[in-house]
Amino acid sequence: MRAVDPAERKIDAELLERISQGDEAAFTQLYERFSGPLYSLIRQMTNDDTEAQDALSEGFMQIWRRASTFDSERSAAFTWSVMLVRNKTIDRLRTRGRQVRVRERAAEQLSTADDVDSLSMLAPHLREQAALVRDVVRNLPDEQRLPLEMSFFDGLTHDEISERLSAPLGTVKARIRRGLQRLRTLWKEEI
Amino acid sequence: MIDEKMEEVASLYVLGELKGEQAARFEAELLGSAELQEHVSGLQEEFATLALAAPMVKPPAGLRARLIQQFRAENQPSKVIRVSFLPWAIAAALAVATTFFFRQQNKLQTQVAELQTRAILAQTRVAVLQSQVDTYASASAVVVWDEKNQKGLVRYDRLPAQEGKDYQLWALDPAQKAPVDAGLMPVSHSGFAKVEFRPHIPVGKGTKFAISVEKKGGAPLPAGPVIFVGE
User: Fold this and answer.
1) For an interface test with A, which of B50, B71, B74, B150 has the most A Cβ atoms less than 10 Å from its Cβ?
2) Fewer CB atoms near the end CB (10 Å): N or C, chain B?
3) Do B140 and B134 meet the contact criterion of CB atoms below 8 Å apart?
4) B55–A114 C-beta distance less than 8 A
5) What pLDDT does residue A169 have?
């Protein structure tokens, strides 16, 4: 299963290749393509504008410095960038004492009625994908969606999620795993 | 065919739940299985698309200009660094001399033995890098190297982050005149990290690995102190 369109994957991979050779135009182009979703991800993780701006800058500099290690046969550039930026942001959160906001996730739907306006901020090739992933996430039962979001957006370990949800560790593990499996199934159905 | 147990371990790996020895074992397995790599890559892709579920917020307009300025500043052509290869010769000699003088703890030895077993199966080689400097005596670094495919994985622990500096990995190929750049080694807050690497040019049999401390962004040739060397 490939969640990123093959033609777009190729463009992104070529941009990273050029960035690794110090091409400023390619860096600017990749920023145009990825900065929206990456900033939104970091903003969601940190809940802090200043922190999010610093983390996005750091993330893009890391993308540049590590562009030569990117292997287009192993992953999509978007996936690689998301994982790199997410890991750096988790490090930042941990450095500052893990001041992760405890979200009222049960009441908080990440992506609700403002989808149309919100999605218009994205580069065209990511709009359809974003609409799809929101649909998929909405269709996850809360008991799977909550721990999955806590893992992805808060960078919490299974132990920490277990503590915060007051649920046994085994239950949390099983729910996250089922959430991932469901995500995979729903992706396949949608695609 | 990936069985259910392995699927579960792969999910834990993608979620960042595998640590230390468990992660090293899985990565050795990963290096030797194209099917498993494909599976993990699919899982990562699905997991990463969750980023698109976050409410969209535009980054401030000025951020792009600041970043490009930073990119431009750091992308200035590097000065040619004249390097004496004497320190490398000393470092290599030290590595041989310290073969019987392992500083690594028993735990690491056990881990390496297990990795070796798996690595043989996966046609990879595992190298324990020996600390050359007392400051890094408590740190550890292990390289898993797949010579056929010219790719590897370096795992390190307790490497302190240094302001304005980067750790850089080098491949010491006896057939090459100079150490071959194998990439930077970002250090997390915990001092633990794992990085996949490919030397910038192909390297042959008998290649050793070394880690040095370099200026931010790395250097085309080693200029800073060598802190780890290994077979």
Assistant:
1) B50
2) N
3) no
4) yes
5) 93
Quote the mean pLDDT of chain B.
77
In whole angstroms, what is the distance from residue A75 CA to residue A73 CA?
A: 6
Amino acid sitting at position B178 = A
Residues 15-54 of B with CB under 8 A from A: 15-17, 37, 41-54
Per-residue burial over A157-170, b if 16 or more Cβ lie within 10 Å, else e, is: bbebbbebbebeee
> What domains are there in chain A, each with its CATH number?
1-112 (1.10.1740.10), 114-191 (1.10.10.10)
Convert the pLDDT of each residue in B173-202 to its tens digit: 888 888 899 998 887 766 777 788 889 888
C-alpha B144/C-alpha B197 separation (Å) is 10
Q: Which of A106-120, B98-112, B202-216 has the lowest mean pLDDT?
A: B98-112
| Residue A170: predicted pLDDT | 92
State pTM to two decimals: 0.63
Determine how β-strand B165-172 pairs with β-strand B193-197: unpaired
Tell me what pLDDT residue A105 has: 41
Helix axes A169-190, A142-154, angle to 10 degrees: 100
Task: Give chain B's length.
Answer: 231
Interface of A with B in 3-22 (CB under 8 A): 3-4, 22
ipTM over 0.90: no
B224 touches chain A (CB under 8 A): no
